[in-house]
Amino acid sequence: MNHLVFQTVVLYAVLYFGQGNHVIQPRNLKVSMNLTLQQLLLEWYVSDDPKTNHCEIDIVFTIQIYRTEENNIILTENYTTALNKSNQPLNWSWISDIPLQCATHGVRLRSMVAPLEAWSNWTSWEAVDGLDVLNDSKGYIFPYEKYVEEGSSVTFCCIAKKNEHVTNYTFHKHTEIVNTTQQRIMFTETAVPLTSEMGLSVYCRFSYQSSFSDLDRTVLFVTRQPDEPRLLDCETKDMVELKCTWDPGEIYSYNDNCLTEFILSDVSHTKTYCSCTKQCRLCQFKISGEQTKYNLTLVSKNCLGQKQAYVDIDVANRVLLPPPDQLSVGYQNATMIQLYWTLKPIMKTLLVVCQVNIFSLDEEEKQYNMTVLSSPPLHPHINLHGLQVYTNYTLKVRCAAANDLFWKWSKWSQTITIQTNESAPAGQLDIWGDISPGFKERNVTVFWKASPGFQANGNIKTYEICWENVEQSGGCHSTKSNNYTISLNSQSYKITVWAKNSASASPPSVLHLSAAEDNGDVKYSEENTTGNTAHGIYVSWKPTSKFDGYVVDWCNYPRSQPCDFQWRRFGQNESSTIITSGAFSRGMRYTFRVYGTQGNRMCLLEKKTKYLKELEPVQDPSFNISAVTSSSVTVSWESYPEDSQLGFIRGYNVYIKMANRNCTLKLSETLLFPGDLVACKHTIKDRNEKKLTLRNLEPGITYLLAVQAYSVNPRNMADKFEPVTTQLERNWFHRLLPPLITVPLMIIICVCFWKSDCVRNYLFPEVPHPHVSPVKKTLVVIEDHEVTPDRLVVMKKPDISIDSLLFEGRAIENATYFNPSCCQSLQDQEGASRKLSCASTSYRPLQDFVKSRPTTSCPPETGQSNLNYVSQIKVPLLGVLQGASPSFREP
């Protein structure tokens, strides 16, 4: 090594001092293009001076690139390399920022041996032509389907064919007109946006193209470099295979030309384990031999760049066990469960810790841990003690490497639900009885419920009840109900009740029923609400020293059958309570019985009838006033909604008073309040009635009305009064109309009475006596008081009998009465002084006509006679004429 350093120093000295500023001249420079990668490729040799052979020295090259489009040098860059003994050509490449097809590029270089700082001469320019110098028969657009990073600047060029020029170009739907006749143009787009899988279209239009379909087109794909992989980690479940996972981040490549590839390799062992593309998140490979440590590198790359992530792992510290399975029960009783499960085998023996999770609806979640070896057979188990009797428990298990090798818990196993066994019920039932007295025997309904210390410890299948007395044997009964009715005589009895499940029976509960008593000392209290609350009923009793406790019983639903019998026990020193129940209803009466107890014996002390305290409504019901007249008003109101009714509505009070004066209306009750306020109150006891009409009011008066709902203890007065004014009586015209009609009418009546004769003669003129022809039979007429016809018309009709007319029920209407001969001898006494007319006869009542019939007859006339008088009404003839019917001639 020292020899080589010495040789190099000597060479530098010889070159610098022996021959002046000696340089190594580059030669044989060749320039080419890789159009796919858009690279300029340079290749050259150095001087074949034998002094430089067989040694390695550092040499610096300065490279310049000239572009004809800009007409200047666009790049000057130094490149340092070592000259080797083989005298092989040197290479260098450069990626162009514009398509190489769009311009001619020239390259030259020089060299310098470091650290002599003596440069060689520049080589001559070596050029590579773009397509713009060709006289091709077609047009071009570059670059072609290029992938660039988002936000980059991209240069395009359009090259027309021979003797043609570019007219315009379009980039992403934006068209630019070209005002030159050049064969080639270049344009640059900056900050290009991220594109979809289809990319951005770029068009060039040349002078020889006439339609859109002829345009030359290229596509620009804009994407991003891949994200750096995150959360790279590895673990094993069996020490055989290693599983590595990561988060690839967002993937921006859309097609096969620029896919994102993930490569997982071991740097220390130069081995690649996985290579995948697109949404790759997982790599699994076998652990090699005894190797437990890995230095892993994950590379994510695409056509624009790459990112890396690293992780160093020890396989022994990355054990993630699979979840346990096949959970089962080996043994169980009422308070213990023996749980088994299985684990998959592990290549190496490990110490494994398992966690058992157990919970029920009535208990908090509990966890039990145990440690086992992972060597086969892997069937660990655990005994879980202290469990509740006849309770469903849900269990699950998870495991992990124990102690220093702990990595993470496995997933939970599937759950299993186990019910512990039953045991005998613990504690006694709370029993009580309801006695219904009878004529010779009494019905005793025994009720029972679980006391605070009672535990069923299983499914209660039946309740056993037995009863017996001293003198004779009793009986037993099995029931699934919580009550049973027994018919007993008046003797004392011992009643026993116990609960049974499949395991055994509970301790018996005993109730001693005394002999039938007359209850002469039982105290009865009247209905009240003293001490009640909005949700409870206050019950009190007078304690005595002979009782060791007290029982209060009642019915939650007193009107239903069964009545939901309830009872509550109290200590010896207690004398009152508030009974609360969600079943209580406002306004409902409840009967409470208070018993004193001596051991298991019951003694009725008193009965109380009470009801839940009813709160007054927050506000009175809204009411409407309608049908207002001069003497009446109708008031109507609506019921309260059930959910807003705070009290049991028993009825309504309607108040009425007059503004600024006392109320004189006679209603149910007159109230006097402070401040000389007087009001009348009308009480409606039917709470379903929602309407009242107030009558006998005065017209044109303003009244104040109010409606109040009342409960047990109503308030003294309603809160809100509404005014209403009755209508005035009818107007003056209607008042004067009756006198205007009545007075003239009375005057007319008086005048008519004063001139009664004139009026009667005017209305009822005298009628002359008619001439009656002889008849065969005597004409008999009924008395005057029986029929008094208004008018009578007789017409001549031969051989027609009056009797026949009567019995046929015919009425003589529109007949003609006439006097053809006007006999002077047939004048009656009353009409002797009157002058008769032979031509006509005046009207005359029928009775006058009958009474004054003559003794002589006038000879009958032959031929037709003139009509003398026409009747205007029907003349009833039935029962008027008797005897032979005279003959009449038709007129």
UniProtKB/TrEMBL annotation:
Residues spanning the signal sequence: 1-20
Protein's gene: LOC110080084
Cell location: Membrane
CDD domains: FN3
InterPro entries: FN3_dom (IPR003961), FN3_sf (IPR036116), Hematopoietin_rcpt_Gp130_CS (IPR003529), Ig-like_fold (IPR013783), LIFR_D2 (IPR040817), Type1_Cytokine_Rcpt_Type2 (IPR052672)
Taxonomic source organism: Pogona vitticeps (central bearded dragon)
Residue ranges occupied by any Fibronectin type-III domain in the UniProt entry: 323-423, 617-729
Any Pfam family matching the protein: LIFR_D4
First-listed, main subcellular location of the protein, grouped into a coarse class: membrane
Family: Belongs to the type I cytokine receptor family. Type 2 subfamily.
Keyword set, alphabetical order: Disulfide bond, Glycoprotein, Membrane, Receptor, Repeat, Signal, Transmembrane, Transmembrane helix
PROSITE patterns on file: FN3, HEMATOPO_REC_L_F2
Keyword Metal-binding found: no
Topology relative to the membrane: Single-pass type I membrane protein
Gene3D superfamilies: Immunoglobulins
Tagged with keyword Electron transport: no
Name of this chain's protein: Oncostatin-M-specific receptor subunit beta-like isoform X1
